[in-house]
Design goal:
Layout (H helix, E strand, L loop, with lengths): L2 E7 L6 H9 L7 E7 L6 H6 L8 E5 L6 H11 L4 E4 L5 E2 L3 H9 L4 E7 L6 H7 L21 E4 H6 L11 H11 L4 E10 L6 H22 L10 H18 L3 H23 L6
Parallel strand pairs: 1-2, 1-4, 2-3, 6-8
Antiparallel strand pairs: 4-7, 5-8, 6-7
């Protein structure tokens, strides 16, 4: 088996069919499989996945409900995978035409690969503008090492095993940590521009802000984990205090449109999450 496509899922009944239909339409000459790793869904996620058995003959559904979190689901599926290459995508997005072939071609020369992220197809325009994702994203910048998103990521199976998979103690930013550890181990991260994923953002300001807070909360822990590996200090009290001080002014100015309001609230929640994370993880970013 050349390729294993891995989809961690938790209650993705409303979106999974779109992703599986996109995979069923892929053209790839080598043997490949799809593994849906169910993380304890209480909706019809598993039933919907099983309905695609005739369109994706090498489709399997594995139980990954023992531990909550997509990191565990990805690891369970990777352990069951037969492919030389592991391709990770999510159950609420949609891979583009030729995604499997583009990822596999890139992995012939690289250890870890990230693709292009497109945002207009599955999201309302105001939401794309709120994130400043009008031109899409290539590899993500972090102020340290670049990283690939877990919803558009390919890796050699042997490399995944060498770094012991995703860190299951992380409920957020697992893909950042994973990409960094792969590179710290001496492996190469490359970009595959033709491996396109249409990403689905959170659909309301409230859900965007909740997600931003959780990501911000995880950042201090991520820094504590990687600072001995050469990660420079990215967080600072100065940046947090500046955001808090300017927040009322920026909030008033943002009331002119929904995208601006969402952007300001999202940044405020991210900083709030960072501050709470610093307190919770007993980290002083001095």
């Amino acid at each position: 088996m050349k390729v294993s496509v891995i989809i961690p899922c938790l209650n993705n009944a409303s979106t999974l069919a779109t992703q599986l239909a996109a995979l069923a339409a892929q053209q790839y000459a080598e043997p490949w499989e799809v593994i849906v790793a169910d993380n304890g869904s209480t909706d019809d996620t598993v039933a919907i996945a099983e309905q695609f058995g005739d369109r994706l003959p090498n489709l399997r559904v594995v139980d990954a409900s023992r531990v909550g979190g997509s990191a565990h689901a990805r690891n369970v599926a990777a352990a069951a995978a037969r492919g030389e290459f592991l391709l990770f995508c999510d159950g609420d997005d949609e891979v583009g035409a030729g995604w499997v072939a583009a990822m596999a071609a890139a992995l012939e020369k690289a250890d870890l690969v990230g693709g292009y992220m497109e945002y207009w197809r599955l999201n309302e325009p105001w939401l794309v503008r709120a994130y400043s994702y009008e031109n899409g994203l290539k590899l993500f910048e972090s102020g340290y090492l670049k990283f690939a998103s877990g919803c558009n990521l390919g890796i050699r199976h042997a490399v995944h095993d060498a770094v012991h998979g995703f860190d299951e103690t992380l409920l957020r930013l697992q893909d950042v940590d994973y990409s960094w550890r792969v590179q710290q181990a001496g492996f190469k991260l490359s970009y595959a521009p033709d491996a396109i994923v249409h990403f689905r953002l959170r659909g309301s300001i409230r859900s965007v802000c909740r997600r931003a807070f959780k990501f911000g909360y995880t950042e201090p822990f991520l820094y504590q984990k990687h600072r001995n590996k050469g990660m420079p200090q990215i967080l600072s009290w100065k940046s947090i205090v500046k955001t808090v001080a300017l927040f009322p002014v920026r909030l008033i100015a943002s009331l002119r449109d929904r995208a601006s309001l969402c952007k300001v609230l999202m940044e405020g929640c991210w900083r709030g999450g960072e501050l709470y994370g610093c307190i919770k993880h007993r980290y002083l970013p001095l």
